[in-house]
Design brief:
Helix content is 12%, strand content 33%. The protein is built from two helices and nine strands; from the N terminus they run αβββββαββββ. The longest helix has 11 residues.
Length: 147
């Protein structure tokens, strides 16, 4: 009886915790997975809204190249959604997010730093030309801009 009860309990256990996250796509080609869903009814920002995000940017090798919470940085990044303060891929994926949601986004070179990368005059590059980037992004806040 104990074995039968264990078998029934195991078969009724939720399997979603073991499932891989669903990979979504923006209309511009950013692939992303929701790693922390937003609360029901959370605000989705519109172009022109002021948003606050926390993020970590990685190369595909896993090396971190930037983060809002790295040493010396304790604040979220505030910017107008749709502006050129961030790369186009971040604007794109954030426009699909709701406040409180966390995603991991894979941003193609065309929506990141393209064929230029981030290089200094000596030719050394923090982000090589043609690099695909990975970002963990948390949308903390969104508000309409003042008139």
């Amino acid at each position: 009886a104990t074995a039968a009860a264990a078998a029934v309990a195991a078969s009724s256990a939720p399997q979603s915790a073991l499932a891989a996250p669903e990979i979504l796509n923006t209309s511009n080609g950013v692939k992303y997975a929701i790693t922390k869903p937003a609360a029901k009814g959370a605000v989705v920002p519109q172009k022109g809204d002021i948003v606050a995000i926390e993020y970590t940017g990685y190369l595909t090798s896993g090396q971190i190249f930037d983060a809002t919470h790295s040493e010396g940085k304790k604040n979220a990044l505030l910017f107008k959604l749709g502006s050129d303060v961030v790369i186009p891929g971040l604007n794109d994926v954030i426009s699909y997010m709701a406040v409180g949601e966390k995603v991991q986004a894979i941003i193609p070179p065309s929506l990141a730093f393209g064929d230029e990368g981030i290089c200094i005059e000596s030719g050394e590059c923090l982000i090589k030309p043609g690099s695909t980037l990975v970002y963990d992004v948390l949308l903390k806040k969104s508000s309409i801009p003042p008139p």
